Amino acid sequence: MGIGRPRLRGKHEAFLEKHFTGVSIDYRQIIALFIPILIDQAFIVGLNLVNTAMVSSSGVDAVSAVNMVDSLNIFLISVFIAVSTGGTVVVAQYKGSGNHQMVSKSAASSVSSVTLVAFAISLIVVVFHSQMLNLLFGAASPEVFREGRTYLIGSGLSYVGIAMMEAVCGALRGIGRSRASLMLSLVMNLTYVLLNIVFINLMNMGVLGLAISVNISRYAAAILAIVYLVKIDTNLRLRLRDMLSVNFSMLRKILFVGLPFAAEQMFFNGGKIVTQTFVVGLGTFAIATNAISGSLANVLQIPSNALAITAITVIGQCMGQRNIEDARKFTRSFLWLSTACLFVMACLMLPLFYPLVGLFHPPAEIVDDIFIITIINALMQVVFWSISFIMPSALRAAGDSKFTSVVSLLSMWLFRIVLGYLLAIVFDFGIIGVWLAMNLEWGVRGTIFLWRFRGKKWYRHRLID
Prior knowledge:
By secondary structure, this protein is an all-alpha fold. The chain is 85% helix and 0% strand. It is globular, with a radius of gyration of 22 Å. The N terminus is likely disordered.
């Protein structure tokens, strides 16, 4: 046994050296970056699962309202998260080039620009919340609509808080400090769940309690994030006044990556909202089926989502050194590892389907549909998810954001929406048709990204000086 362990360890190290070590970065650095992001993603998904289960105690109307509004929340929040991703890429490339002064400037610019974008979006949502809900979800029942209005206003008020948090965490991931990013995220999400227990379970405040919890947790985390950047992490040398001013030269670099990604996210998630209107038209049970199926799908994607986030920093630092060979090598390794993770997660989760779905207290009428969707989604994710989500992270980290954005937009609107409507409404597959269309669209998009990766254009962008 004493001889076998070192030999086994040697094989593992040889594998990691071969696939996850290069000139730019080695496997130990990648693991140190990945593990905190993985823990963060697991907590976020796990806590969202708990939150959805807690909200379900308030009835199907509450679950449906939260899911309905969250599709709009994801659409809006994705805009400033996209700008934050632009900041992560710029910070990572400056880190890779060894320019520490520009690392600080780019981190400060990322926080200020993302916060401004979030403030503008928040103002629009709070003022025009009724018009938005009427336009998008007018077919919902009056009970669902009423709960949805409460949740949308509360969510809109919290956008600036989550934007500041995302900007700070994105900058920290860009320089490889994913552990600090993890701690900030844990503070926010654990506070959110604890407050939900108080407001929803103990005080029976339902959706209003959820809205109060999200505001307190996000703003508390935002304040802590800024304090961390200015007072605790002195290596970055960030000053509060740097984040209160706009560096237009740096802003242009951030927006070069962030704006195409923001446009992609707006239209991509806008397509999801259009799809959600199909679901709303199918009735309250279909909305609840979609919500629960989405929560279970998020569990399957935890390790792979963490890899997609890690890839931005790793490939960004490779490109900062102009090391194309490392960028290609790590992208391929992340693709295969993500696919393996999805397979393992599906094998672990499918036997636990009924205990997991029981957390949501679903009506008996929708359990079979949730099971069918979970089976289809698990199989499709193993084949298509990685090329559709890991690959664009790598391309975007190299500055190839316009191409990835255009492809994502076209595939969403030409395949997912049109095919989703045909399968769900015309051919009467219902909610299962919506999920089938989404899974097939991943394959179309991912195939195009693979073709781009095999060429040379994706790495010819010059983002930093």
